[in-house]
Design goal:
This protein is α/β, with parallel strands linked by helices and 291 residues long. Helices cover 47% and strands 12% of the residues.
Length: 291
């Protein structure tokens, strides 16, 4: 079975996050995993060259996860061979005043990659059905019609947002974009270990904040929010990939293989040159050789 099928969720209704492993044994040493990832990076570079040269299709890769699951290092390692000219990375933080003046998907569409490019979302539009479930008071600042108090926020509100997200992803697919959705599945114990390292190692202190500890207190709420979001938005056309993230090298290997498999399925190729163009090229070549 192709590795992208192993971690793929296409039927959300039966999905249970607690049943998904946060750690697996690939029976490879760390050195073997690094070597394989390097090969995958080279393969991805080849895919990107064709994608960019053709300029007809695009790729959107988004990463969602709990704090310390390794989103930043995932992007750094797996996408290290990508030509920056054909790649954009967007991190979605707390919406600005300008962004709150628009619908919740407005800022997202601004960041969708061009045809021929690979766009990476470090967190994404899914934050609007994740953090708002855990902290619904955030919605009171969005000046949404019909929502004046917390009592006005019903389950139907999230159902509508899920529908909007699915429609948006379907729209991108019809327009020639491949949407890859990765959830880096980290255990609570491993998050604790990584937080401890961030505190104990001076060079990692900058990564830790008191807000991290506060959000850790909502662990179960976030797990439930992720489960509901995946249940509502996992489809055959735009599946979720649930990646065991307790070991970073294991998760990097899996993600790099899935990305390459999905790009290979796009049947990418360099543009063909017409007979007229070839004739013009040969003429230019003859002129150059005379100089």
């Amino acid at each position: 079975m192709p590795i992208e099928k192993v971690y793929q969720v296409t039927k959300g209704k039966t999905f249970q996050l607690a049943e998904q492993p946060t750690a697996i044994d690939l029976k490879l040493s760390k050195g073997e995993m690094k070597e394989t990832i390097e090969k995958n990076i080279q393969e991805l570079q080849s895919h990107q060259e064709k994608l960019y040269a053709r300029g007809q299709k695009g790729v959107l890769i988004l990463f969602q996860a709990m704090d310390a699951a390794g989103k930043d290092s995932m992007i750094k390692h797996v996408m290290s061979g990508i030509n920056p000219q054909g790649c954009t990375v967007t991190s979605f933080k707390q919406p600005s005043t300008l962004e709150l003046d628009h619908d919740f998907m407005w800022r997202i569409h601004q960041a969708v990659p061009r045809r021929g490019d690979i766009g990476i979302f470090n967190r994404s539009y899914y934050e609007d059905v994740l953090i708002t479930r855990v902290h619904p008071e955030i919605l009171l600042n969005e000046r949404l019609p019909g929502i004046k108090t917390l009592d006005d926020i019903k389950e139907k509100f999230y159902t509508h947002r899920y529908k909007t997200i699915k429609q948006f992803e379907s729209y991108l697919t019809r327009e020639g974009f491949v949407v890859l959705k990765f959830f880096l599945h980290l255990s609570k114990e491993e998050q604790k270990n990584r937080f401890i390292r961030r505190i104990e190692l001076p060079e990692k202190n900058w990564k830790f904040s008191e807000a991290d500890m506060k959000e850790r207190g909502y662990w179960d709420d976030y797990q439930q929010a992720y489960e509901k979001a995946i249940q509502a938005t996992a489809t055959k056309a735009n599946p979720w990939y649930i990646i065991p993230a307790d070991d970073k090298w294991t998760s990097r290997l899996i993600v790099s293989q899935i990305i390459n498999q999905r790009l290979a399925d796009m049947d990418l190729a360099f543009p063909t040159v017409s007979a007229e163009k070839k004739e013009a090229l040969e003429k230019s070549l003859k002129e150059l050789t005379k100089q």
